[in-house]
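In the previous chapter we treated chains in isolation. Here, by contrast, the input contains two separate entities that must be folded as one system, with a combined length of 527 residues.
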Amino acid sequence: MGTITGRRAAYERARKRRSTVVATVSSLAVVTAIVVLVPKMPRWDRVHESFFNGERFAHSLPRLLDAFVLDIKIFAWSMPAIVVLALLVAITRNSRSAALFPLRILTIAYTDVMRGVPIILWIYLIGFGVPGLGIDRPWNSPLIWGSVALVLTYAAYIAEVFRAGIESVHESQRAAARSLGLSSWQTMRHVVLPQAIRRVIPPLMNDMVSLQKDVALVSLIGPIEILRQAGIDKSKFANFTPYIAAAVIFLLITIPLTRTTDYLIERERRRTTGTRIS
Amino acid sequence: MSTAKISLRGVHKAFGANSVLNGIDMDIAEGTVVSLIGPSGSGKSTLLRCINLLEPIDDGEIFLDGTDISVPGFDANPVRRRIGMVFQNFNLFPHMSVQDNITLSPVRTLGVNKALARAKAAELLERFGLADKVNAFPDQLSGGQQQRVAIVRALAIEPEVLLLDEITSSLDPELVGEVLDVVRELKTSGMTLVLATHEMGFARDISDLVCVLDGGHIIEQGLPGQVFSAPQSERAQQFLERIIRAGRL
């Protein structure tokens, strides 16, 4: 960064001032419109009462936070399983050994089938179907099989992210590693994967944000996690405020995660592509 | 078999319909320096990659100390530890420090203990004037430094032969000298070297044997004095004339 000449600096200052003014005025206008206009709608009183009821909010929040612990648990045990399975699938699919050909076909079929059907269907099919085979307690828990469904579907998506990362590592890196006598697995393990994983961390974080929300889908087959708890509270008091409370709790987790992802993407961009063009 | 360190007999290689090597015969004696010169696309790099078994050949044989290493299914990894290779674009591992780049193969493939491998790396870096770069990462080094590290990395597995694939072609002109000095030092130490190069003056000075490739054939081979001053074949004469006109010799 060299020194900016006085004329340049003055121009940059003026431009910055102008954009700040534009941003402030337009934001204020939007917020005012919402705050002033929405309460003027004919049924606002009813909506306010059934969605933004302070008493119901305060009553539900602690119960929802308790239920949210289950969401975090499902997330916590699913995520490592997803990453491990996805890595295995991606590595198998990228392997060049002829002996692994049948496994490669299997992984292609797996990613196609899992990604081609809505997650919700897999949760129903695996969550109800597998325990229906007559497995004994505690292994017939919908909690287990719902999580398995999440792991299987998410691993299929994330395997593709890893695969893109692996393929983005230039062939010359493999050539260098092999010329040093490293085996094909050692090349993958020490040269390709470390570079691939570093590159896909931002998109991976993005999928983690999605997973964090999709955990709530497991509630469809029984477990009482936050979404289901909110449904129970809603029915008990015929009031939708618990859903708003649940949304707020989700946002408390997902917004910091998303911001972190953006930060990582920006850092990667700066590291790899240099100066930003305005 | 002959007593050559490496012998090529009728080596053919094609990529799809594009045939790159069309019957290469060559003997590389132990402790000698062999230069491959010729226009771009003549097959120099492919030949080196074939010797390193990075590319399987379609026909012919490649012998290392009299053993045919080109037999399909031959275990390439031990062969590659005996034949090191350095690439045009350095190909250092960007996620590893200089030290880790150098010790990766000795530790993982030869089972050398880590402390020993590091001591050896330090010694090699010292020898090539890179002692202060041991903890640097590749992107913190100049092109010339990166290429010297790549040479050290190849030397760390103590190969018997070193293949140098246009190792100065992507360097700024003022950085070429430091890399060529390393090659001269290697020659002095008695290492068998095979280099594909566009540095004609250097090839003339350092080589024991010069091979001119064109269209996947060796069109001329002999002592550097003979090849550069009195080439026998017409195509070799034309190639060298173009080089001289361009001021590269």
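Residues 39 and 214 of chain B are 7 Å apart (CA to CA). The domain at 6-245 of chain B is CATH 3.40.50.300 (Rossmann fold). Compare these points with the single-chain example from earlier in the chapter.
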